[in-house]
Design goal:
The complex is a heterodimer. By secondary structure, chain A is mainly alpha-helical. Chain A has helices spanning 9-17, 24-31, 33-49, 51-59, 61-67, 74-87. By secondary structure, chain B is mostly helical. Chain B has eight helices and no strands. The longest helix of chain B is centred in the middle third of the chain and has 23 residues, at 72-94. Classes of the chains: A mainly alpha, B mainly alpha.
């Protein structure tokens, strides 16, 4: 079937109804990915060169992030936690 | 960010690190990814949200490996299908449930692909037409709600919708069939 033939009003309406907007918060979170990634890179790099900061992260990740000025969201905490083992090597 | 950018142009700008391009890419495909998760694979909202974020995270990480920038749409569809299947398998281990059949899923995916083509054609219409069609069909708003939001008499909404559908049909009939018809110069 051609994707662009045979459209009547009912069919067009049904197809438009098939794509409701994704929840706004999901879209915003996905759009903020690049800046979130930059934040993670920044934290990991600092932990690499600053041993005291690294120790604080390992001891209490959320408190250390908050003290360093980052909002310790679940996503950020999980992402940084995933990077901690490689920093110990 | 102009809506006139083709998918390939948009991907190129994302790869160059333009934040506005990434925002546009997410905006352009968010409904598609969402619909695949909740309509084709019938994931519950919390699983669909995980899949949604996972798909865009993978897309962001792997954009450089995309061989054909114009193929972002089928590539995202494949990433989403894989993420949904993984999620269903994980859920089935934890709590067995009836999954949609493969034939049914394929039919829904085909329909969503067509729906995205129609949605892309919508972007070529005037802002008024885009708004009224999106509110009525995709957001399921009543004539009354639309009338109040757009400051239009509720009695004129049906005729406006009909007129805009006519314009959308003309727009679609003037396009070449294909999976990547989102604009471009």
């Amino acid at each position: 079937m051609s994707a662009t033939s045979g459209y009547d009003e009912e069919r067009l309406g049904e197809l438009l109804s098939d794509l409701p907007p994704a929840p706004a918060g999901w879209v915003r979170a996905a759009q903020e990915l690049p800046s979130a990634r930059r934040g993670i890179d920044e934290i990991v790099e600092r932990a690499r060169v600053d041993s005291e900061f690294r120790v604080r992260l390992v001891a209490d990740l959320e408190t250390a992030l908050a003290a360093a000025g980052y909002e310790p969201t679940d996503e950020l905490v999980d992402a940084v936690r995933a990077c901690l083992p490689e920093l110990d090597q | 960010m102009s809506m006139e950018l083709s998918d390939a142009q948009l991907v190129g700008r994302c790869r160059a690190g333009e934040a506005a391009a990434w925002n546009e890419l997410v905006e352009r495909f968010s409904r598609y990814v969402y619909a695949i998760a909740v309509r084709a694979y019938r994931l519950p909202e919390h699983d669909a949200e995980d899949v949604f974020q996972d798909v865009f995270a993978r897309a962001y990480e792997r954009l450089a490996s995309l061989r054909d920038d114009a193929a972002i749409r089928p590539w995202l569809a494949q990433l989403t299908r894989n993420a949904c299947v993984d999620r269903l398998r994980t859920s089935a281990r934890e709590q067995p449930a009836e999954e949609p059949g493969a034939e049914e899923t394929d039919a829904t995916l085909e329909r969503l692909d067509e729906a995205l083509t129609v949605h892309e054609a919508l972007e070529a219409l005037s802002g008024d037409c885009r708004d009224i069609l999106d509110r009525f069909f995709a957001r399921d708003e009543s004539y009354r709600t639309i009338g109040e939001a757009l400051d239009l008499p509720a009695g004129t909404i049906a005729s406006r919708i009909s007129r805009c559908l006519g314009k959308l049909r003309e727009q679609l009939e003037g396009r070449k069939p294909g999976p990547n018809t989102s604009g471009g110069s």
